Amino acid sequence: MGLNANAATGSRGADLIKSALAVLLAVCGLAAQAGPPAQRHAVEQPAQALADTLHGIARQTGVSVLFDPAAVGGRSARPVSGRLSAAEAVALALEGSGLVAEVMADGAIVVRLAPPPAAASGLAPRSTHALLTVADASVPAAWPVAGEAAADEAGARAAAGADGAQKIQITGSRLKRIAAEGPAPVNVYTKEDIERSGQPTLERFLAGLNEASVAPGEGAQGATTGQGAVQLRGLPLGSTLVLINGRRAQAVGSSSANFFNLSLIPLAAVERVEVLPVGSSAVYGGDALAGVVNVILKKSIDGLSLAARAGAGQGSSDSSLSLAAGGQTERASYLLLGSYSRNTPLTMAERGFFRSGDYRRDGGPDTRTRGCTPGTVSSTTGAALPGLGSPVAGIPRVPAGQPLVPGDFAALDGQPNLCNSLANGHGYALVHGDETWGLHAVGEWRLGETWAAFGELTHTRDTLRAEQTGLALNNVLVPAGSPYNPFGEAVRVTGRLGLDNGAEGLARDTRFTRALLGLRGELAAGWDLEATLSTSRDDGERRLLNGSVNAAALAAALGATTPDAALNPFTTGPAASADVLRGIWQDSVRQNHGRKDMAAAFVRGPLAQLPAGPVEALAGVEAARDWYETTLSGVTTRDSRNAAAVYGELRLPLLRAGAEEGRGWPLTTLTLAGRRDRYSDFGSAGTYQAGVELRPARSVLLRASTATSFKPPTLLQTSVDDTSIPAEAFGLVDPARGGEAITGAEVLRTSNPDLGPEKGRAWSLGAVWEPDGSLGTRLAVTAWRVSIDGLIALLWPQVTLDYESRFPGLVTRGPSVGGQPGAVTQVLYSEVNFGRLDTAGVDLDAAYAWRAAGARWTLAGSATRTSRYDVAVAPGAAAEDRVSRRALDYWAPRWKGRLSAGLDTGTWGLGLTGRYLGSYRDTAGDGRRLGDDWQFDLAGRVDLKRLGWAPASAKAASLGLAVTNLGDRQPEFVAAAPYYDVTQADWRGRYASLRLSVDW
Fold first, then answer.
1. Rounded to an integer, what distance in angstroms lies between the CA atom of residue 431 and that of residue 468?
2. Would the CA dihedral through 798, 799, 800, 803 be positive or negative?
3. Could you tell me the end-to-end alpha-carbon distance of the chain, in angstroms, rounded to an integer?
4. Per-residue confidence band for 39, with pLDDT thresholds at 50, 70 and 90
5. Do you find a cis peptide bond into 893, omega within 30 degrees of 0?
6. Any idea what DSSP says for residue 7?
């Protein structure tokens, strides 16, 4: 009965999401029939250079304004003020300039010289009072940048199609296209979306998206020890490729070359994030098994911009400050941004959930140990301690320096001190303390009418520190001669020293630099070229504080007979001199260095003209060198690899609706991409992707795509230093010889010369409806599937022996005797390819926006339903179903969704978002149901400039407030250590943040 009730409860949230999406579908349908009202915006532009006004209108309205800098240069614009459509604002700015504006089919506005009177033939001018679709205007229109909208007349000539519409580049292809939607789903999140989320880091924002089924976890229990990462579709860590401005971000250094640390990207420099949540390597190369996260950094601003943020919750806080300066002339533009951020640590000692360690209250185990401060003393013989009736007693808490006598232990005779050792002292980190300094610079220089040189520089220093538990004493022997031993005979002590003696913990210092120089311009016949040279490097030091114990020094200090040389394990205060403590507990230091140098170039343009339109093509090459070095305990491991790639893309319009020039739309389009990568250490990998777009109506898109992908072995996996270990250390048995114990053999930790890449394949099928001229109406559904074969794992030697025939060459034997296999002489302990994973699901998305009562109102809902997640990670074992079944590494809940509502008056705005995590089962204990919960976030914003609360010299000023997890929902208990679900937990609880931004 209880199970049925839980099952019913587990479906409530999913039913609510489905019901809400159904309501949104109905609302959107009614809205489409009624037709949306014209969209107007609050536009405020002073009398200034016309180019600056056009840039400002693009920013304030979100509509792309394209113009030729040569035609606009030297002209001034009158002030533009009021609630205006983009077309109306541009028309006012152009009065008396000799220029005219034309609204294109997709809503983009093109500014041109007015035609001579004879050409006009007395016809009335074309009306510009049209409904406008929203396009990307995140950068000034005069500076075309890869990954951004082309926006000067010269760029428009090369980028315009038969419709004259603007072309943009979206993640998943380097070809520019007219529509933002393409054959594969790409979800775009702006800096405003990140700010409204109230999340303090890019990692936390991405973890809240439907596409990220699980997160690697924060704090000491997370898989990344405080480094930022993302797991699209819940796939293994390192399966998601991170790009910066459409170019690979190198996963090296402190991340052990397995994933890129998102914390190294200054959050203040992020303009938007584009997420391609299906695998694809044909465009960008390896590591894109789960998909791509493309972080687009800011390109340009006019003037100064200041942003400050402060956030706080119970026991934790964060703050950040950024200052940016930018400008432009007819020949150059630049942006320089400096940022600083910090957050305080949050530890287990600050959450009551962990304080006792006795989880029997939740139906779990009692995990309390004797690792407390003070600890527990016990007899070495099993007899009662002198003066007591039991062989065990808790050490009493007395003032520091007060000597103990056996009678002081009477109250705790037979009662060990028990506690949660992980919550001792400061406790293990739930969120690491972190401090980050960042510098981001961008520049572009015109080298004529059609060529430009550009550069990017990002430098970050990230410092993480977490002082955690007291120094551990694990059943140490305290001789009778110790001046602090009150019993007169040798005893044993288990516990942790007080924090006056220092703490175990983690400190990591990472320095990341990324520099890029490039050249782009137009070639003949509408083709353009882009070539870049880039280097990225990170240098890190990971220090385990007091993580190494000198056993000889510890024994000597416990046995010392003078107080100045002895260690006192019975006190909660200082236990020894600083010199004695430093001689026993020492830091374990690991140095990491990584670097990637890359040269790349591509050309793109029209290859041929078909009746339906031009065939767009792209061809490119890349050459790169990766280098990695790590030093631990005086042992240095280093390796490097060279890689080269050739790739190409084609976009073929097959059919077109409407034959009249300048009218109609692409009806059927086919896209193809292929890539060949060659690595110096493991060989080659070929990938492809293909997609088809069908547009039965201008506002309807039917699409399908398929793609292959791969993830190369990391340099650490291909460059293992050989280490010989006696087989007895592993307790191995030989199944081929009746399970006899293996003795006299060696286990050789080594690299596998036959190790290959992980290989993936992805499919998607979907439909999108976005009515022309709407304020934001959208319906979309996408079915997807991702499969990975040859997962790389370090194979345990006994597993190798159990499945010897499946891994030829890993076991070496002596000569066979009497038909029986020879004795094992060597087992290779190395990485192999043997796992596989198959996941599939559906993404749903619905949104509607309308105007009423002087405000813009929005409703939106989205959900991901994972229907399949099969994993085989053990040789010979059946695939494991991990849909809604918690795992320690990767899995997916069946449902994850979001519902939101908002309004914006121009002067102020308010939004409420609900985040839903579907029901799932624990893997341990009784398989209890978890999840099926909502968290609600509230975000508000006021325009200080409109309210008159900003300096008169400011162009814009706003104040935002966000409160995440309004209900202060805490993570749930699970039946296995660390007793909460790391992949879903956020221990900050209710968290409020305030953000101020001012532009001059």
1. 11
2. positive
3. 65
4. low
5. no
6. H
Give CB contacts under 8 A, 24+ apart, made by 43-47. Answer: 43/80, 43/81, 43/82, 43/83, 43/84, 43/89, 44/80, 44/81, 44/945, 45/77, 45/79, 45/80, 45/81, 45/89, 45/93, 46/79, 47/76, 47/77, 47/78, 47/79
Ordered DSSP codes for 304-344: EEEEEEEEEETTEEEEEEEEEEEEE-SSEEEEEEEEEEEE-
86-94 vs 50-61: helix axis angle to the nearest 10?
Answer: 170
Strands 746-749, 920-921: pairing kind: unpaired
Poorest-pLDDT segment among 100-104, 324-328, 470-474, 985-989: 100-104
Give, in order, the Cα–Cα distances in Å from 132 to each of 38, 104, 342, 955: 8, 9, 41, 25
Question: Where do we find the tokens 């020039």?
Answer: 661
- Check residue 18 and give its pLDDT: 55
CA distances to 120, 300, 818 from 46, in Å: 32, 20, 97
Q: Which residues contact 622 (CB under 8 A, 6 or more apart)?
A: 285, 598, 599, 600, 643, 644, 645, 647
- pTM comes to 0.80
- Burial label for 895, CB within 10 Å (0-12, 13-18, 19+), is buried
| Whole-angstrom distance, CA of residue 555 vs CA of residue 549 | 11
Q: Where are the beta strands (DSSP E) in 147-214?
A: 187-190
Dihedral (Cα; 818, 823, 828, 829), 10-degree rounding: 130
| Three-class SS state of 116 | coil
37 — pLDDT class (breaks 50, 70, 90):
very low
Residue 775 or 412, more confident: 412
Percent of the chain, pLDDT > 90?
Answer: 50
Both structure tokens of 739: 């399970």
- For range 274-279, the mean pLDDT: 86
H helices within 699-757, ranges in order? 715-718
Whether 253 shows a pLDDT value over 70: the answer reads no
Name the band, by pLDDT with cuts 50, 70 and 90, for residue 773.
Answer: low
Whole-number Cα distances in Å, 862 to 19, 371, 423, 766, 984: 12, 47, 38, 14, 19
Higher-pLDDT residue of 329, 148 = 329
Other Cβ atoms within 10 Å of 133 Cβ, number = 24
> DSSP string covering 815-843, please?
--BTTBPPPEEEEEE-EEEEEEEEEEEEE
The pLDDT value recorded for residue 697 is 87
Instruction: Report the residue count for the chain.
Output: 1000
378 has pLDDT over 80: yes
| Closest residue by Cα to residue 279 from 789, 629, 741 | 789
Do 779 and 768 contact (CB within 8 A), yes or no?
yes
Helix (H, G, I), strand (E, B) or coil at 730: helix
Residue 422 pLDDT more than 70?
Answer: yes
CA–CA separation, 831 and 755 (whole Å): 7
Convert the pLDDT of each residue in 581-611 to its tens digit.
Answer: 999 999 999 888 888 999 999 999 999 889 8
> Six-digit token pair at 126?
């074309």
Cα–Cα distance for residue pair 845/824, rounded to 1 Å: 58
